[in-house]
Write a structure and sequence with these properties.
60 residues; mainly alpha; 2 helices
C-alpha cells in the first residue's frame, strides 16, 4: 500500500490515530497546517502565518 504525504505528515497522522484510539478525541490542526503549507509551496503561493480561526454554528 502506497502512502501519500510527507514523512512528517504520516507521522503526525499516526500520532493523531493513536490519540484518537486512546482518548476517542484528537486534534488534527498540526496536520492541517502542514498540508496547507505543502500545498501552497506546490502551487507557488506566498507563505501565510499558521493562524486559524474556527466558526461553529449551532442550530439549537
Amino acid at each position: 500500500m502506497e502512502s501519500f504525504g510527507s514523512k512528517k505528515q504520516i507521522e503526525i497522522m499516526q500520532k493523531f490515530i493513536d490519540e484518537f484510539t486512546e482518548k476517542k478525541s484528537a486534534d488534527s490542526l498540526k496536520l492541517l497546517i502542514d498540508l496547507r503549507k505543502d500545498l501552497r509551496e506546490e502551487l507557488d503561493l506566498e507563505k501565510v502565518p499558521d493562524v486559524f480561526k474556527f466558526l461553529r454554528v449551532n442550530n439549537k
